[in-house]
Amino acid sequence: MSEILDGKALAKKVRKELKIEVERLKEKHIYPTLAVIMVGDDSGSQVYVRNKSRACEKAGIEFEEYLYDADITEQELLETIDVLNKDKNIHGILLQSPVPKHININKAFRRISPEKDVDGFNPINVGNLCIGEDCFISCTPYGIIKLLEEYNIETEGKEAVILGRSNIVGKPMIQCLLNKNCTVTVCHSKTKDIDKVISKADIVISAIGKPKFVKKEMVKPGATVIDVGINRLEDGTIVGDVDYEEVSKVAGYITPVPGGVGPMTIAMLLNNVVKATKDINKQ
Ligand code: NAP
After folding, report:
1. How much of the chain is in helix, strand and coil states, percent to nearest 5?
2. Rounded CA gap, 235 and 237, in Å?
3. Which of 219, 213, 204 is nearest to 249 (CA)?
4. Of 10, 166, 196, which is best to mutate to test ligand 1, by the most ligand atoms within 8 angstroms of its C-beta?
5. Where does 227-260 have alpha helices with state H?
6. Cα(205) to centroid of ligand 1, in Å?
7. How many C-beta neighbours within 10 Å does residue 196 have?
8. pLDDT 10s digits, 187-236
9. pTM, rounded to two decimals
10. SS3 assignment, position 44
């Protein structure tokens, strides 16, 4: 049986450390503050924003919500971002996706000041990650790297296979694993013989949003399997992209869903807000 990579426990530890750091900042009258912009009433987004708000509250981070109807114009949204960029009391800005189709989300991400871009989606941060400069790293890949480090999982020279090439997970994950000296392969919906590609991996990271897609037969015995997927089945159960019951019989390490990558994503968001606050205030 695999060893479980307990994202919930590690996230708790990270959050505890951050709370101390937040208290230290508050003693200097610096109040870490995250502004979250949400457009429309997507039910999934509402849950994510609520979770982020609770996590901020527990860590002592101020949380400001900016909610807009789905018919807000792109220009109005960009102007809101401009106001938050200039506001000295705001340290982190996050635009919750998805946004309505008439808004170009990349244009909005680009408008967020790189110094406040705690999601790491501004191309300046994406580029800095690529060239190895200090930057904000997208929270999910960053959380995965922290999990691998916590469990001393060897990455140097290892074959890593990422399933999914989204801008928020798959692509930044490539760079994070390259920085850890992995040999990285990325799969997507057009990849041929995906089973074969997965089977050579020492580290598999699945972020495709397909319930139980990764089967036991695809996984090399002893491999580390990281499941990013969050999929709701018809009966309401949440499962990952990995057939956990079966794959955990062969994998060396595995993340559960829930309780694996999800809590680490939120912990890294808090981490990035604290980093932004410290950088802005030269602490
Ligand atoms: P996304 O934008 O939904 O894109 C999915 C990616 O998977 C695409 O690159 C797509 O390929 C690829 N794909 C789809 N079906 C495939 C298949 N059968 N074989 C191989 N590749 C396939 O991705 P995302 O936003 O990164 O989300 C992925 C999953 O992670 C979702 O379940 C999401 O809810 C979850 N998620 C979890 C967290 C967390 O904190 N735990 C954070 C973010 C996302 P193409 O590019 O060719 O279309």
Report:
1. 45, 15, 40
2. 6
3. 219
4. 166
5. 244-247
6. 11
7. 10
8. 999 999 999 999 999 999 999 999 999 999 999 999 999 999 999 999 99
9. 0.98
10. helix
